[in-house]
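Bit of a strange request maybe. I'm writing a small parser for structure token strings and I need a real example to test against, not something I typed by hand. Could someone generate the tokens for this chain?
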Amino acid sequence: MSPRALLSIVVLLCAVPLRAEDADGFTPLFNGRDLTGWVRVNGAEDTFTVRDGMIIDTGLPIGVMRSARMYENFVLEFDWQHMVSGGNSGCFAWSDGLPHVGGPFPRGIEVQVLDPGFGALHKGENEWFTCQGDLFPVQGATMTPFGRISKTGARSFPIEDRTKPSPEWNHYHLVADRGELRLSINGKEVTVGKDCVPRRGYLSLEAEGSEAHFKNLRIKELPSSNTPPEQSANAYEGFHPLFSGKDFAGWKFNDAMSAVWSARGSHFVTKAGVPGGGFDLWSGKSYRDFVLCVDWRLTKKAEMKALPTFTEDGLYVRDAQGEIVRKEIPDAGDSGIHLRGSPNYQVNIWSQPMGSGDIQELHKDEKIPAELRRAMLPKVKADAPFGKWNRFFITLKGDRVTVVLNDQTVIDNAQLPGIPAEGPIALQYHGDEVEFANVFISEL
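Reply from user aminoacidic:
Good idea to test on real output. This should exercise your parser:
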């Protein structure tokens, strides 16, 4: 190649501007046009949208949107602005792929995105509880606070307040490396958190009641430190929400159903004592094989009630006259999850001593062999105390069901004779007040 030709190539290359990620090792997390690379965890389709090169976070319903993949060690940069004084939002580092049991937010370490007006609106609450730019673990995550520590002892507060008020833009520079977080606000490092667990997981943007905007999101990955599984977030890949948090779209819902069912943000509640029938809440879509996540709690105050008793193989206990033997036990309500279009295939939610998760309509059927009936009874009572949140993971493959309640397997690959190959699912209304949240499904 001649010197003239080589010079021409060099000049041509110099004339082509380098992309930012090529120049300093950063890669964009947001293309400015759509939400490619991001996954709606919960909330509505319009909670996070794109306008004028920004991610628009309406703040409602409360929830999060996460990155499509997990990150371990990295440098994250982004700009944000609140549109109201006292606005609240956040960015989660190293978060799980589903919200924590009963709540709208995942386990992880939150980087507070808070407008300075929050303290004035909450009568100085930020002086002891939270403030703009603090770092803190949520929903079971752990962190050692460092530097200026909140009065609660749980949060790292910034050593200097550098946050600009709404509607001005602020710039965050977050270094996340080997379980340590270092946050710089508008050009100066002010907050540090150490010994974080998890220390590998998703990045999440938070909707928490008020409109916020994000732009210029980019990331530079740092060398791996081979974080072990027990210090990594739970992926929960493949799940998508069945509730939007604001309505019952996707469910068979009519005016009569509104007497029983109501939405409270990320939670859905049944009203006790509504007369009549046909109030089970059925999905509009039919499903074959799936893993279903459902959070629930029995909310009424327990009272003594005479309820049926059962034999070791699932039948009713009967007296000499053939009458069902009942026993007074504390009762806080009854509900369940119907599988594939039939109440006969119901995963129970109730107050019985055996615990929730049994397949009652089948295990009390004398026509079914005892061995199959026994497999439909809980191996252990895994229910949380009345009033506390519980989480089901129900896996249905063919005619086999496995039920995990609060991380304990209560039903293990039990056969469900005669179950249809496909059908909708339902949340049962049994006349009691029951609260549901975090209904997700992953089709297999």
